[in-house]
C-alpha cells in the first residue's frame, strides 16, 4: 500500500469543481485512507500483515500447526461452497487466523508501548547519571516504537493523564501555600484542607476517576470549555497571544512580496500537516500531537453562554483585511497551489483596489475584540441571513485571516527599543479592529515588510503555533527567498481571477454595537503597558555553563524582582505542558516556593549561604516542573474537583478559596528553534523574541520589567562569579 501511494505525496490540490480538481481530490482521499491505515496499525506496518500470512502458510506446509487447532476450528465454521476446495478453505482459514494473530500482535505491541511511555523515572535522574532501569527502558522503547512514524502514529499508544490522589494534591498545595501565608492563615487553611481530604474530597475523587476511565484526558475538555470557551470577557489581550518576526532581519521591504512568501509557506505547512509528514515531537518519548488538528480552517464562534470551536476539513482561500475592506483570496487555481509570486500579485491587487469601505465595515472586527455576549447577540441579529451571513461565513471558513497593516514596525529608527515595544503591542491587539480575533490565527504583514501573528488560545497552546511560525519564517527566508528587487520568485499565470471583495449591509444599530465593542477593546488596549527586552549579554547557554536550569534561573529572578519591587512574595503561575499524555495541554508550576523565598531573604540580608540556597531553590523548581509534566501537578486536579463539586451542588470552603486565589505573576516559556531548517549559531542575526501574552492582572508596576532585567543581571553575576 505504501508503494502504491508514494507518488501522491508531492501533489498539491484542493477540489474546486473542475475535472482535474476532482481527480486530485480523489487521490487526496486515498492518501488520507493510506495515512489512517498506517497510523492505525502503528508500530507495525501494513506490509507486516503479508509477512505474518506467509509465515503461517509456510509452517503449515511443513506439516506443523502453529495455531494449535484454531485454523481447523475456523475452517469448520466457514460456509460450505462447491467452488472452494478443501485446500482453498484451509488457505482462507489460515489467512483469517494470520489476520487475527496480526491484530493481536499490534494490540500487544501498542499496549507494551503505552506501558513503557507511562514510565517517567528518566526525567528525575541527574544529568549524566542514567540508571540501569532507564537504560533498559530506553532500549525497550526503541524496540516497540517502530520506524518512520507519521505525525499521529503515537496517539493510540500515549498513556492517559493519571488522576493524583487527593492526599498528595492537598499535601503539595499546602507546601506551595506556606511561603505566602502567615502562621495563622496557614493553620486555618490546613484545617480546611484536612476536612476536605477526609470527607468531600474522596467522593469527588470517585467521580473524577470514573470520568478518567472513559475520557482520553480527564482535564482537557473541561479546561477548554470552562477556562476558554465560557469566558465572557474580550479575547484580545486576555486570551490571544502574539508571535514576532526576526528581530534584526527583514527579508524584503515589499509588503505584498513578504505576504506572498508567508502565505505560501503556511500552505506548505498545511500540506505537510494534512499528509502527516511533519515529524512527531520526541523528547525521549513522543508528545501528543492532537492540538495540531485545528491549526487551520478553525474559528471560535461566539455564544451568549459559551463559545464553540468549529473546524472545517479544508479551505481553499484566506480572508484578507486591508484599509477597512475585506477580501476573499483564493490560494488554489486549476487544482494547484498558487506560487509565491502569484500570491504577491493577488495581494498587490488588493492593495491597489481604490474602493472605500462601506458604512460599518472598517471597524467590524471590533466585535471580535470586545465582550463575547454583545458579539453573540449582534451575530445572531445582524449576520444570520443575506449578504452579511455570506461574508461572515467566508471569513469564518477561511484557512486563516490576513491583515495588511499600513504601519511600519520592528527595531528601527532612533528608538529601536521603543519601536520593539510598539511592534509587540501592535501584534497583541493592533487597532482593535484590524485583527479577526476569533480565527485560529491572523497573519499580520506590515508596510515595511515585517510580519507577525496573533493567535486564538482555546484550540491549542502556544508551542503548537510557535512550531508553525518558525517553519513559516525559515521557509520564507531560506527556502523560498526573493529576487534581487525584493519580489517573490516564480511565474504568474495570466488567467488568475482577481480577489473577491466581500459585501456588507450593516445597519445603523449594528454600527452602534460595533462602536461600543470598540470602546471596550480600546480601553483594554490602552491599559496595557508593554515592554519587550531582548537580552544579548547572556542567554541560556551561559546559564547552563553554570549548571543551572535557565527556566529555574528566570523564575527565581522574577521572584527577586517582585520582592525588591513590592517587599513581599506573590503566588506565581508558570505554564508546563502535559503532552506526554494523550490530549494533554498544560499544568501549573507554582514557582514561588519556600526554597526560593529563603534564598531571596538570604541574598537581601547578605548571608554567606546564598549560593547553596540558590542551588536548592533551582533544584526544587526543576522538581516541581517535572512533577507537573508527569501528571503530579496541583491546579488542574483541584480545578476538576471543583467542577465536580459544582455539578453535585456541594460547597467546599477549601476548593472555593483555592480557586479564588490571585495570580499576580503569570509567566510562560516556549522554546525557540523547534524546527531545524537552519543554524541559529551560524546565523545569529536570524533570531526572534518569540512571542508573548497580555497581562492577566493589572498591578500598576510600569517599571517592573526593567527592574527584573537589573535583577537578572545581578543574579547572573552572583551565580557565575
TrEMBL record:
<keyword id="KW-0808">Transferase</keyword>
<keyword id="KW-0813">Transport</keyword>
<keyword id="KW-0812">Transmembrane</keyword>
<dbReference type="GO" id="GO:0005741">
    <property type="term" value="C:mitochondrial outer membrane"/>
</dbReference>
<dbReference type="InterPro" id="IPR042231">
    <property type="entry name" value="Cho/carn_acyl_trans_2"/>
</dbReference>
<dbReference type="GO" id="GO:0009437">
    <property type="term" value="P:carnitine metabolic process"/>
</dbReference>
<keyword id="KW-0472">Membrane</keyword>
<feature type="active site" description="Proton acceptor">
    <location>
        <position position="457"/>
    </location>
</feature>
<dbReference type="InterPro" id="IPR023213">
    <property type="entry name" value="CAT-like_dom_sf"/>
</dbReference>
<dbReference type="GO" id="GO:0006631">
    <property type="term" value="P:fatty acid metabolic process"/>
</dbReference>
<feature type="domain" description="Choline/carnitine acyltransferase">
    <location>
        <begin position="161"/>
        <end position="696"/>
    </location>
</feature>
<dbReference type="GO" id="GO:0015909">
    <property type="term" value="P:long-chain fatty acid transport"/>
</dbReference>
<feature type="transmembrane region" description="Helical">
    <location>
        <begin position="40"/>
        <end position="61"/>
    </location>
</feature>
<keyword id="KW-0496">Mitochondrion</keyword>
<comment type="pathway">
    <text>Lipid metabolism; fatty acid beta-oxidation.</text>
</comment>
<keyword id="KW-0443">Lipid metabolism</keyword>
<dbReference type="Pfam" id="PF00755">
    <property type="entry name" value="Carn_acyltransf"/>
</dbReference>
<keyword id="KW-0012">Acyltransferase</keyword>
<keyword id="KW-1133">Transmembrane helix</keyword>
<dbReference type="InterPro" id="IPR039551">
    <property type="entry name" value="Cho/carn_acyl_trans"/>
</dbReference>
<keyword id="KW-0276">Fatty acid metabolism</keyword>
<comment type="similarity">
    <text>Belongs to the carnitine/choline acetyltransferase family.</text>
</comment>
<protein>
    <recommendedName>
        <fullName>carnitine O-palmitoyltransferase</fullName>
        <ecNumber>2.3.1.21</ecNumber>
    </recommendedName>
</protein>
<dbReference type="GO" id="GO:0004095">
    <property type="term" value="F:carnitine O-palmitoyltransferase activity"/>
</dbReference>
<dbReference type="InterPro" id="IPR000542">
    <property type="entry name" value="Carn_acyl_trans"/>
</dbReference>
<feature type="transmembrane region" description="Helical">
    <location>
        <begin position="91"/>
        <end position="113"/>
    </location>
</feature>
<feature type="transmembrane region" description="Helical">
    <location>
        <begin position="12"/>
        <end position="33"/>
    </location>
</feature>
Amino acid at each position: 500500500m505504501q508503494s502504491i501511494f508514494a507518488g501522491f505525496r508531492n501533489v498539491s490540490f484542493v477540489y474546486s469543481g473542475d475535472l482535474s480538481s476532482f481527480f486530485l481530490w480523489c487521490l487526496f482521499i486515498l492518501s488520507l485512507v493510506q495515512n489512517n491505515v498506517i497510523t492505525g496499525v502503528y508500530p507495525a506496518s501494513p506490509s507486516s500483515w503479508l509477512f505474518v500470512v506467509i509465515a503461517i502458510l509456510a509452517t503449515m506446509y511443513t506439516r506443523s500447526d502453529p495455531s494449535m487447532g484454531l485454523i481447523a476450528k475456523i475452517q469448520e465454521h466457514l460456509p460450505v461452497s462447491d467452488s472452494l476446495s478443501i485446500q482453498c478453505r484451509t488457505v482462507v482459514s489460515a489467512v483469517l487466523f494470520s489476520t487475527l494473530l496480526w491484530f493481536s500482535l499490534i494490540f500487544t505491541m501498542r499496549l507494551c508501548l503505552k506501558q513503557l511511555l507511562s514510565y517517567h523515572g528518566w526525567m528525575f535522574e541527574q544529568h549524566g547519571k542514567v540508571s540501569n532501569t532507564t537504560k533498559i527502558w530506553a532500549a525497550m522503547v526503541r524496540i516497540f516504537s517502530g520506524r518512520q512514524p507519521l505525525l499521529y502514529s503515537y496517539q493510540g499508544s500515549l498513556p492517559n493523564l493519571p488522576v493524583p490522589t487527593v492526599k498528595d494534591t492537598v499535601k503539595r498545595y499546602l507546601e506551595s501555600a506556606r511561603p505566602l501565608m502567615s502562621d495563622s492563615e496557614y493553620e486555618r487553611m490546613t484545617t480546611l484542607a484536612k476536612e476536605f481530604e477526609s470527607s468531600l474530597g474522596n467522593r469527588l475523587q470517585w467521580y473524577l476517576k470514573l470520568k478518567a476511565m472513559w475520557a482520553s484526558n480527564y482535564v482537557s475538555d473541561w479546561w477548554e470549555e470552562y477556562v476558554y470557551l465560557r469566558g465572557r470577557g474580550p479575547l484580545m489581550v486576555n486570551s490571544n497571544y502574539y508571535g514576532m518576526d526576526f528581530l534584526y532581519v527583514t527579508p524584503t521591504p515589499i509588503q505584498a512580496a513578504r505576504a506572498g512568501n508567508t502565505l505560501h509557506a503556511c500552505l506548505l505547512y498545511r500540506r505537510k500537516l494534512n499528509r502527516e509528514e511533519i515529524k512527531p515531537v520526541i523528547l525521549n518519548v513522543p508528545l501528543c500531537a492532537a492540538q495540531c488538528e485545528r491549526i487551520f480552517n478553525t474559528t471560535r464562534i461566539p455564544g451568549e453562554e459559551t463559545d464553540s470551536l468549529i473546524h472545517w476539513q479544508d479551505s481553499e482561500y484566506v480572508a484578507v483585511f486591508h484599509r477597512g475592506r475585506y477580501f476573499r483570496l483564493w490560494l488554489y487555481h486549476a487544482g494547484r497551489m498558487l506560487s509565491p509570486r502569484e500570491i504577491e500579485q493577488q495581494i498587490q491587487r488588493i492593495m491597489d483596489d481604490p474602493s472605500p469601505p462601506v458604512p460599518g465595515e472598517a471597524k467590524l472586527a471590533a466585535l471580535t475584540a470586545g465582550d463575547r455576549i454583545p458579539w453573540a447577540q449582534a451575530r445572531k441579529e445582524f449576520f444570520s441571513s443575506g449578504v452579511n451571513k455570506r461574508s461572515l461565513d467566508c471569513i469564518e471558513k477561511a484557512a486563516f485571516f490576513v491583515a495588511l497593516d499600513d504601519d511600519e514596525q520592528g527595531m528601527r529608527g532612533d528608538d529601536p527599543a521603543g519601536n520593539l515595544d510598539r511592534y509587540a503591542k501592535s501584534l497583541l491587539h493592533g487597532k482593535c479592529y484590524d485583527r479577526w480575533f476569533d480565527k485560529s490565527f491572523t497573519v499580520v504583514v506590515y508596510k515595511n515588510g515585517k510580519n507577525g501573528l496573533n493567535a486564538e488560545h482555546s484550540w491549542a497552546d502556544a508551542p503548537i503555533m510557535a512550531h508553525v511560525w518558525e517553519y513559516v519564517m525559515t521557509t520564507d527566508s531560506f527556502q523560498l527567498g526573493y529576487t534581487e528587487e525584493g519580489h517573490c520568485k516564480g511565474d504568474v499565470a495570466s488567467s488568475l481571477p482577481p480577489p473577491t471583495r466581500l459585501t456588507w449591509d450593516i445597519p445603523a444599530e449594528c454600527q452602534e454595537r460595533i462602536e461600543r465593542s470598540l470602546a471596550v477593546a480600546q480601553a483594554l488596549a490602552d491599559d496595557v503597558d508593554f515592554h519587550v527586552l531582548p537580552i544579548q549579554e547572556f542567554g541560556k547557554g551561559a546559564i547552563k555553563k553554570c549548571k543551572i536550569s535557565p527556566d529555574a534561573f528566570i523564575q527565581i529572578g522574577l521572584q527577586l524582582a517582585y520582592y525588591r519591587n513590592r517587599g513581599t512574595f506573590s503566588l506565581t503561575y508558570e505554564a508546563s505542558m502535559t503532552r506526554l499524555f494523550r490530549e494533554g495541554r498544560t499544568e501549573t508550576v507554582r514557582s514561588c516556593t519556600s526554597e526560593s523565598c529563603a534564598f531571596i531573604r538570604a541574598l537581601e540580608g547578605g548571608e554567606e549561604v546564598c549560593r547553596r540556597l540558590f542551588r536548592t531553590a533551582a533544584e526544587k523548581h526543576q522538581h516541581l516542573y517535572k512533577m507537573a509534566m508527569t501528571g503530579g501537578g496541583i491546579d488542574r486536579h483541584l480545578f476538576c474537583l471543583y467542577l465536580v463539586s459544582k455539578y453535585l451542588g456541594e460547597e467546599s470552603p477549601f476548593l472555593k478559596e483555592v480557586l479564588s486565589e490571585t495570580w499576580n505573576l503569570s509567566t510562560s516559556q516556549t522554546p525557540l528553534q523547534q524546527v531545524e531548517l537552519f543554524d541559529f549559531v551560524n546565523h545569529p542575526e536570524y533570531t526572534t523574541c518569540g512571542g508573548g501574552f497580555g497581562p492577566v492582572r493589572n498591578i500598576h508596576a510600569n517599571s517592573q520589567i526593567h527592574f527584573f532585567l537589573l535583577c537578572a543581571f545581578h543574579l547572573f553575576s552572583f551565580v557565575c562569579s
